[in-house]
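Record Enoyl-CoA hydratase, 249 aa.
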Amino acid sequence: MTETSVRLTQQGEVATLTITSKKGVLGPGFWREVPPLLATLGPARVLIVRGQEWFSAGLDVKATAPVIAPALGDPQAFGAVVAEMHAAIEGLAALPIPVIAAVHGWCIGAGLELISACDLRLCSEGARFSLPEVKLGITADLGGLQRLPGLLGRGRAAHLALTGEPIDAETAERWGLVTEVLPTPDALFARAEALAAALAQLPPRALEGTKRALNAELPHAQGLQQAVAWNAQHMSAEGLMTALNGRSS
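=>
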């Protein structure tokens, strides 16, 4: 049985979570290892998520089938199995720090649902994205169908999910799935690290408050109130003056 190995490294205030399994398959080990790794981020102010060989070929069906098969037909048992996967992806989404996905090679199925939970997504020119679950008789259930409409618009998310057909890096950028396409994987990783370093220099409470406001599924007026309440609690006159003085210098 192939187990996914995940490595967490940290340089200064930037942490990197690397999927190190062959072709980035996401097997039972991945889902077990990620939540405790996220709990060890400590002083990290930005997290980069990347693959090693590819970003991710998606769920390791061969390794996961023995776990899923006994639960089929039993919603409660199946829900318990999938809950472990949800814990990893939702834990990533819930981090108070910015999360950058750096995608090279294929990003398939569960891998695409994983990056939809990140805040920023970059890729290299050779990246390909696919949500092929429908071709396998499956409804994607790891958050992609909930998050992708907000990223791509409902029509493009529906096209991706209902056809199961892949899109290339240029299309992903045009559709809004990624915000930058870099020429090579090396250029991609360098850009992700530079962006992470720049974000790490910004006030962490402002980043956290901005992320909370962006991710909050609230009516407009309540969203405004949330942002105002956050500033009232976390903005300081000293910090504001320091920022203004720095801008004018």
